[in-house]
Design a protein that fits this description.
Layout: E1 2-9, H1 13-24, E2 27-31, E3 34-39, H2 42-53, E4 61-67, H3 69-74
Antiparallel strand pairs: 1-3, 1-4, 2-3
Length: 92
C-alpha cells in the first residue's frame, strides 16, 4: 500500500469534478483540490493516473507526491496537531 498527496489545478468544472470523484475512491479530500490517497499497487496507480490524464486540458496540472510512513508521522497542521494517524498493526 502506497500513500500519496495529490493536488491539481484544473480549469474546467466538469473535469475538476471527475478527477475529484476518481480520487475519492482512494482517499479523502483535505482541501478543495488536494487529496490524501492510498493505492494498493503500482498498476492501480498507473490506472488512476491514466484516467485522470484523460480529463486534463493542456494547461491543467495534477501532481502525485509520495508520502512515506516517516513523512506521514511527522506531518502536522498549523496547530502542531498530527494529520496522519497510522495503525500500530495491520491485519491481513
Amino acid at each position: 500500500m502506497a500513500f500519496y498527496l495529490v493536488c491539481f489545478d484544473i480549469t474546467e468544472d466538469r473535469a475538476r469534478y471527475r478527477v475529484g470523484a476518481a480520487l475519492l475512491d482512494y482517499g479523502t479530500r483535505v482541501q478543495r483540490s488536494v487529496f490524501e490517497i492510498e493505492v494498493p499497487s503500482g498498476a492501480e496507480l498507473e490506472r488512476l493516473r491514466e484516467a485522470i490524464s484523460q480529463e486534463l486540458a493542456e494547461d491543467d496540472d495534477c501532481r502525485f507526491y509520495a508520502l512515506c510512513k516517516t513523512c506521514r508521522r511527522r506531518s502536522t497542521d498549523t496547530n502542531g496537531e498530527r494529520v496522519a494517524y497510522l495503525p500500530a498493526a495491520v491485519l491481513i
